[in-house]
Amino acid sequence: MARVATTVAIALGSNVGDRHAHLHHAVERLSTLLTNLRVSHFIESEPVDVPEPQPPYLNGATVGETTLSARELLDALMAIERERGRTRVTARAPRTLDLDLILYGDAIINAGGLIVPHPRFRERAFVVDPLKQIAPELVDPVTGQRMDQL
Which CATH code is given to the segment(s) 6-149? Predict the structure, then answer.
């Protein structure tokens, strides 16, 4: 049986190396996983909740549709991060590429390292603002608010 496509939102970030190249690589790879891909402009932001000084981030967001399960998509995102040299030495270390699954349709998931919606996305303008730009109609299933209301 064919899976129904689910609308997903993914945040992108990079603060190590060629940030633009890392984000463009991510968008290129995401275009092979998602249909009807929309990509925000990239914005620079200061690191948030990090233990040591770090370079600024380049952030953006994408929205598209996938037939992958949330777990399959998360695994694919982590593989794309690894392609760009991402290592997970500490939780909030600088990174070549960070891809966060923000929304997976209207699902609320908390299972084995997969938490959707992303638990802190509402507090982060560097995630919400790019999503407002490309998908103001998306709804946070926890609060019931549209992106343009957050």
Answer: 3.30.70.560
